[in-house]
Amino acid sequence: MIMSEPAPIADANTPPGMLEGDLVRLARQGDLAAYDELVKRYQERIYATIYHMTSNHEDANDLAQDSFIKAYQALKSFKGGSTFYTWLYRIAVNKTINFLKQRKNKHHYSLNDIDFNTENNPDLVALISDKTPHREAGLTELQKTLNEALMKLSEPHRMVVVLHDVQGQSHEEIAEIMDCNIGTVRSRLFYARQQLQGYLSEYAKPT
Amino acid sequence: MNQKENNFEELQQLLKLKQQELPPPGYFDDFSGQVIARIRAGEAGVSQAYAENLQSDAPWVMNFLRLFETRPGLIGGFAASLCLLLVLGVIYAEHSEVATKDFLTVSEPSTAAASPMASIGAPALVAASESSGIVASTNPVTSLQPVATLFAQPATPSLFQSVSFASPGQ
């Protein structure tokens, strides 16, 4: 085996408060400890976006890891024209959309459990028990219906809904991530919501 | 636009349920560790692929490197022998420079006598060539050619001898 320079060891002492730009610069130089810190900062948001797009925990896990690895390998091409966060998101979004296109319409659901505390969320409890015809429907049933409705949307429309209504991103951020203008984001969001409302008419009615 | 937003208020509340779908507890504890491990494995894989290419293209190099892995002491020995070869090469180069200078000065009478190499065969060659009118040179092609001018006969005696083909009876 050919001898090579040892890879830098991930150092748990890397300051978590370090600026994103500094971490990116160190990571570009091959500092895996710095990149480890970047992964920790964005892992939950990247995973969540992919999970809501795929409705499959295992796929989301693989795609999220692949996205971070691809981002690390492509760090040298990162010019800094946008924030690292936006750039990373763009990689994850493209990877996910490509994956879904390859998979076509073969959906394999592997849904995460709903947080226990949700059952005590008064808004959601009211939504389920008071305003829907299926009062007996539990959270699990609603979760399944919701995911099925989302999966009926096209990938770009689903992505806009996930980023805006689930993850709370602004129109501007979504436009940058999806490399389109804000008008397109708004129109896609409107269309996607209309579609969803049709699919979920039992649960959500226009006010 | 606000009117449009209000139309989807219930839907937006429903979609908030998605925020509560969380991966198993402790899932993110090791997530970054797995990513870093895969990055390292990928880098190691690149080195491995390079080694495999080398193995197929030049197997002797790999055997040579493996010899060092099994017997690390050989690295020192190999390095020492390389240094020795370098020193010997420098010394040899210096000596050969002196010898070359001596050889190039063979045609000069004063240095020819002093040079041991020139004293062996060069004086005899010079003497023979001078007597026959041929200028001695290190160039084997032109050395046998007589020196001539364009407008006159060569100053040296002719190398050609006239012969007669007359029959004995004539």
Explain what this protein looks like in three dimensions.
The complex is a heterodimer of chains A (207) and B (170). Chain A is mainly α and 207 residues long. Chain A has helices spanning 20-28, 32-54, 57-73, 84-103, 122-129, 139-152, 155-166, 171-178, 182-199. The longest helix of chain A has 23 residues, at 32-54. Among the domains of chain B are: 35-70; 105-132, no CATH class. Chain B is built from seven helices and no strands. The longest helix of chain B has 32 residues, at 73-104.
What Rg of chain A, in angstroms, do the CA atoms define? 20 Å
Please summarize the sheet with the most strands of chain A: none
The major pleated sheet of chain B works out as: none
* Mean pLDDT score of chain B: 70
Structural class of chain A: mainly alpha
Shape by Cα distribution of chain A: globular
Total number of beta strands of chain B? 0
Q: How many helix segments of chain B?
A: 7
User: Number of DSSP strands of chain A?
Assistant: 0
Give the helix/strand layout.
The complex is a heterodimer of chains A (about 210) and B (about 170).
Chain A: H1 20-28, H2 32-54, H3 57-73, H4 84-103, H5 122-129, H6 139-152, H7 155-166, H8 171-178, H9 182-199
Helix pairs in contact in A: 1-2, 2-3, 2-4, 3-4, 4-8, 7-9, 8-9
Chain B: H1 2-7, H2 9-19, H3 31-57, H4 59-70, H5 73-104, H6 109-114, H7 118-132
Helix pairs in contact in B: 3-4
Give the key terms.
heterodimer; A: mainly alpha; Rna Polymerase Sigma Factor, Chain: A; 62% helix; B: 170 residues; mainly alpha
In short:
The complex is a heterodimer of chains A (207) and B (170). By secondary structure, chain A is an all-alpha fold. Chain A contains 9 helices and no strands.
